[in-house]
Amino acid sequence: DTGVSQDPRHKITKRGQNVTFRCDPISEHNRLYWYRQTLGQGPEFLTYFQNEAQLEKSRLLSDRFSAERPKGSFSTLEIQRTEQGDSAMYLCASTDYNEQFFGPGTRLTVL
Amino acid sequence: DQQVKQNSPSLSVQEGRISILNCDYTNSMFDYFLWYKKYPAEGPTFLISISSIKDKNEDGRFTVFLNKSAKHLSLHIVPSQPGDSAVYFCAASGRDSGAGSYQLTFGKGTKLSVIP
Description:
The complex is a heterodimer.
Chain A (H helix, E strand, L loop, with lengths): L4 E3 L2 E4 L5 E6 L6 E7 L6 E7 L2 E5 L7 E4 L6 E5 L8 E8 L5 E2 L3 E5 L1
Parallel strand pairs in A: 2-11
Antiparallel strand pairs in A: 1-3, 3-8, 4-5, 4-9, 5-6, 7-8, 9-10, 9-11
Chain B lengths: L3 E2 L4 E5 L4 E7 L4 E9 L6 E7 L4 E4 L2 E6 L4 E6 L8 E9 L10 E2 L3 E6 L1
Parallel strand pairs in B: 2-11
Antiparallel strand pairs in B: 1-3, 3-8, 4-5, 4-9, 6-7, 7-8, 9-10, 9-11
């Protein structure tokens, strides 16, 4: 399967803990995006990488959130000191042109 | 303010008939539009897209129409099948997104139910 993969698929954590998610994009895609989706809403943009460079961040990305894409391959999204409001589906997408292809997402539940 | 709006939260259609899903946008800088299909607990799956230089794009049972003057697009599915039952998201991207990211702005989705 050469699609976008994300790990883990589900994460349950207690408030105040740190969590890290991983995304493996389609191998030839140099652009990678993170989105967040909450119930009843469409996905909302969080951040964007062109190769290893993080070029844009949404105002939704508070200072508790950090993302990396070392060597321009896989990416990680870390949330520090999680809050209940962080509970959502975190989606990763990659592209080399216009159409973005999404992974299955990581469902985060903060208790 | 919502830049991409899908005003119908749900739609029910008989199998074999046409499904028409609508989407409106407000940002005139949007120049590329996409439709995604989403099943529960899965990521969105790309369906079809259209550039602002076109007014129609067709792929099998799926056709997207773009009316730039009205800032409106629609997705037609003909004939509708029970497997089409899912949430459909309209998304848009444009030149004004910073650093050339072409980030997608999504609507809230329309849940399509195709009744056998």
